């Protein structure tokens, strides 16, 4: 490949090599120097339809699972409820492995194949590993993925079933796999393919481009790639007008937002990254400085959102638009809602929110949200192999559903109604376990003949089980 690599922060130039991932001088991410030639290649599949804006890959090496060309939904119902009628949702949940990174894997795996590699090695918080595993299968390459024990379980299932070799590590290291090409989240090639999202949006809204495009930020690579393609298209004389880039981070890890708010030119590392959204829990974003610049130069915004706001947006996407997003994918809508509330984005704006990934990949979070939303607590617990209550505990709950009782009454009820003979301390142990699990609460204590009686009652969760 005869492209040059340039540092997105200090501008240092390097000749291209798949092994070079970061700038030696400043440690920030690198980007390919590209001159796009054309926008669409008719008859091609997946991202290859837009091969004119991607590094050149011979047709015989191009791998696709049908990624890209995702629908741009008019989010009319959410739009009305938040007061932005011109809300558009770029729905990446429908990508082959459920993540926008399928675009990146298509490019990366094809290049690996064209360079003669037989193996890909990567470390991943989830989505990238699962996606590369799928595309490697299609190409006949082997994938090795390092994951942390905190990985979203759905993404782990994906990797394993696609046939990747998975090793669990506590911290990601440069464990070399012989003869493998290394793919990383901040890889110049991985980022390059993300440009196709903004290109598709511009082609889909060709008559009236949006005022804002809203994106989640972890490494900042999607913001970087989006701005890059805007500039490339301007050079081609295609894009006109200005589109403000809005970058959204979770409140528990928001180094880029902090730098934006403080008016800094460079992003400082987050001292204690604590977001449970692992794909976005990036303390030291490699494209942070570039993302910051993109946001400022387009007159955009950077905003952070709480977990509660993210889950609200996730629910709205599902209930009002039929889109089941993962938390990271819901960040863009959560950010927009916040900016509309604070009037930083005007209600008559045309806005595109990019929803980057599917909720089915994250059963733990899905369970948490479904649990809160429905009365099927018991069924959800059982199906997900969560807490399994023993028979005595289940019967105690049944007894308490008749009326509130104190410990001795429960003991008598077990014995008289169900023929269960247990000792009184055992009954109290069961009751305190049930309180701890949130199925039962203590409601009142009365003194009867000098002795304290504590009454127990079912909680909503307990009622759901009975
Ligand atoms: Zn640099």
Task: Note the topology.
Blueprint (H helix, E strand, L loop, with lengths): L3 E4 L5 E3 L14 E3 L39 E3 L1 H7 L3 E6 L9 H14 L4 E5 L3 H13 L2 E6 L5 H9 L3 E4 L11 E4 L4 H6 L1 H10 L7 E5 L4 H15 L8 E7 L4 H8 L25 H10 L3 E5 L1 H15 L5 H15 L8 E6 L7 H11 L3 H7 L7 H12 L2 E2 H12 L5 H13 L3 E9 L2 E8 L1 H6 L1
Describe this entry's structure for a reader.
By secondary structure, the chain is an alpha/beta fold. It has three domains: 61-99 and 190-368, Rossmann fold; 101-187, 3-Layer(aba) Sandwich (Rossmann fold); 391-465, Arc Repressor Mutant, subunit A, CATH 1.10.10.10. It contains 17 helices and 16 strands. A six-stranded mixed beta sheet has the order 4-5-13-10-11-12, sandwiched between helices. Strand 7, helix 4 (153-161) and strand 8 (165-168) form a beta-alpha-beta unit. Helix 15 (407-418) crosses helix 16 (424-436). The longest helix is centred in the middle third of the chain and has 15 residues, at 221-235. The protein binds zinc ion (ZN). The site of zinc ion has 8 residues, from loops.
């Amino acid at each position: 490949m005869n492209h040059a690599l340039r540092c997105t922060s200090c501008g240092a130039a390097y000749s291209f090599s798949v092994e070079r991932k970061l700038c030696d001088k400043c440690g920030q991410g690198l980007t390919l120097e590209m001159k796009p030639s054309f926008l669409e290649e008719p008859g091609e599949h997946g991202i290859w339809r837009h091969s004119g804006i991607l590094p050149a890959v011979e047709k015989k090496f191009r791998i696709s699972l049908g990624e890209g060309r995702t629908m741009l939904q008019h989010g009319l119902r959410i739009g009305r409820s938040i007061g932005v009628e011109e809300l558009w949702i770029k729905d990446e949940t429908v990508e082959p492995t459920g993540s926008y990174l399928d675009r990146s894997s298509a490019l990366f795996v094809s290049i690996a194949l064209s360079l003669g590699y037989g193996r890909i090695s990567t470390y991943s918080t989830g989505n990238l590993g699962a996606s590369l595993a799928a595309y490697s299968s299609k190409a006949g390459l082997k994938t090795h993925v390092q994951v942390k024990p905190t990985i979203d379980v759905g993404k782990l299932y994906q990797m394993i079933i696609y046939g990747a070799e998975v090793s669990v590590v506590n911290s990601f290291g440069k464990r070399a796999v012989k003869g493998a090409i290394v793919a990383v989240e901040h890889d110049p090639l991985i980022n390059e393919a993300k440009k196709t999202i903004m290109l598709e949006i511009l082609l889909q809204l060709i008559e009236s481009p949006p005022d804002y495009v809203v994106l989640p930020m972890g490494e900042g690579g999607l913001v970087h790639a989006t701005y890059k393609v805007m500039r490339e298209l301007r050079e081609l004389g295609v894009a006109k007008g200005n589109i403000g880039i809005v970058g959204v981070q979770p409140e528990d890890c928001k180094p880029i937002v902090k730098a934006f708010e403080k008016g800094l030119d460079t992003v400082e590392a987050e001292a204690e990254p604590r977001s449970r959204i692992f794909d976005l829990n990036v303390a030291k974003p490699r494209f942070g400085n570039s993302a910051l610049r993109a946001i400022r130069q387009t007159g955009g915004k950077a905003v952070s959102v709480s977990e509660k706001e993210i889950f609200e947006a996730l629910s709205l996407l599902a209930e009002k638009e039929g889109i089941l997003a993962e938390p990271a994918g819901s960040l863009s809508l959560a950010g927009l809602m916040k900016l509309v509330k604070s009037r930083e984005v005007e209600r008559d704006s045309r806005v595109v929110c990019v929803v980057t990934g599917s909720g089915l990949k994250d059963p733990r979070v899905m369970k948490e949200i479904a649990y809160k939303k429905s009365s099927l607590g018991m069924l959800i617990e059982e199906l997900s192999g969560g807490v399994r209550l023993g028979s005595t505990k289940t019967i105690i709950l049944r007894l308490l559903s008749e009326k509130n009782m104190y410990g001795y009454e429960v003991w008598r009820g077990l014995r008289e109604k169900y023929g269960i003979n247990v000792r009184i301390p055992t009954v109290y142990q069961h009751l305190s376990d049930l309180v701890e699990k949130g199925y039962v609460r203590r409601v009142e204590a009365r003194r009867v003949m000098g002795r304290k009686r504590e009454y127990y009652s079912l909680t909503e969760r307990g009622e759901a089980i009975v």
